Amino acid sequence: MNGDAVILGAGQGGLTAAVTLRERGWVGAIHLVGEENRAPYQRPPLSKGYLSGVESEHDLLLRSLESLERDQIATHLGVAASALDTVRQRVVLSNGTELAYNALIFATGSAPRRLSLAGSELSGIHSVRTVQDSDTLRKDLERGGDTVFIGGGFLNLEIAAEASKHGRVTILEVAPQILGRVLSRESAEALADFHSGLGIEIRCGVEIAGITGDRGRVSAVELQDGTAIPASRVVVSIGAEPRDELAREAGIMTAGGIEVDMHLRSSDPRIFAIGDCARYPSPFAECEMRVESVQNATDQARYVAGLLTGGPESGYRAVPWFWSTQGERRLQIAGIAMPGDAARVVERGDGGKLVVERVRDGRVSAVETINAPGAHMRARRALAAFPDQAASSPPREHVQS
Ligand SMILES: Cc1cc2nc3c(=O)[nH]c(=O)nc-3n(C[C@H](O)[C@H](O)[C@H](O)COP(=O)(O)OP(=O)(O)OC[C@H]3O[C@@H](n4cnc5c(N)ncnc54)[C@H](O)[C@@H]3O)c2cc1C
């Protein structure tokens, strides 16, 4: 395919797609459209080093606008794509600009799922997706007091480690364990122990009745059993929703994300979707899924850029991997475990080190490591053969560190 490329979303995936297209010799125009009015930046530090003040706004930058200009990538920042005409192959932006495309890539990401509880409209309720969200939360944390977290997922655990430096922290989780859908009980317990050591209280299996306030600002979170937990602020992370609304309105197939095939192509052959907004058939999960990780966004971006510039026709099958830094603990996951996959602890060591294999149909489907980067890298290499490998675990030396 050749001609002009339009990329919607100037985040991790969109930026990588634009730059890779140019690197691989795309000769036509490349338009990168982003509704946030800033140069493309990375999000992981927003709940880690940037929130704590160790990293600056400059450290977040993925590429400067000058370098994009040098690569002849036209940026349209601070404007949203507001309409898509798939017949005329045109995108309309919120400032009225119309962009014609031969290839269109959706890299519109996801947005935090909103609370629908009594009191959700009070001030002092945070969720972190953008630089501004992280700035607002940092300022609020610096005021001290009690922070209550709703949801025991990766983001909240990362932020909680930072919040514990400023005051009392409570994490509320509806499920019987934190990180229940994505992590083995063994790894989740190791992280829960670490957070308890920071003085954080984790309460699982709770039902939240609502948030109460005082003069418009949050003051407590109430549980169904009548307990009221004092809160100077509440941080909510209860999952994310794909930004697939524009695709849906344009008649492209969506189902909890923009549906794409193994080549990341949507129901319209000129339109692709990558990153958080894409629902794709993963050979690692044996089903269609959305994955929210930097690796997923960047590898899918490179894959589509490769496909558009005459790359290999085989389907997308990069090994999924993920990391989450929670205080002194660095969790890394290689592969994708399904909730029913068995877990076996391969190694426990000093400094919180833990290696857990997840096993499906007699094969290692994923490896979870805490403070064991060597084991993580070996697992990634071993998993590259998944799911075509013979029904056996990777040799033990692949997962020991
Ligand atoms: C706080 C935080 C911490 C994280 N930490 C980690 C981590 O430790 N490890 C990890 O692997 N992953 C982490 N992630 C996840 C990772 O950042 C995302 O998976 C990744 O950014 C996805 O890239 P993307 O390009 O799909 O979406 P994004 O990077 O979110 O970019 C999408 C962009 O599209 C824009 N957009 C949406 N609709 C439109 C429209 N109609 N017109 C124009 N622009 C539009 C959005 O505003 C956004 O700027 C974290 C995420 C967050 C929020």
What does the secondary structure layout of this molecule look like, with pairings?
Layout: E1 5-8, H1 12-23, E2 30-34, H2 49-52, H3 57-60, H4 65-70, E3 73-77, E4 81-85, E5 90-93, E6 98-100, E7 103-106, E8 110-112, E9 125-126, H5 131-141, E10 147-150, H6 154-163, E11 169-173, H7 185-197, E12 201-204, E13 208-214, E14 217-223, E15 228-230, E16 233-236, E17 240-242, H8 245-249, E18 258-259, E19 271-273, E20 278-282, E21 287-289, H9 294-308, E22 321-326, E23 329-335, E24 342-348, E25 354-360, E26 363-370, H10 373-383
Parallel strand pairs: 1-2, 1-7, 2-3, 7-19, 9-16, 10-11, 10-16, 11-12, 18-20
Antiparallel strand pairs: 4-5, 5-6, 8-17, 13-14, 14-15, 20-21, 22-23, 23-26, 24-25, 25-26
Helix pairs in contact: 1-9
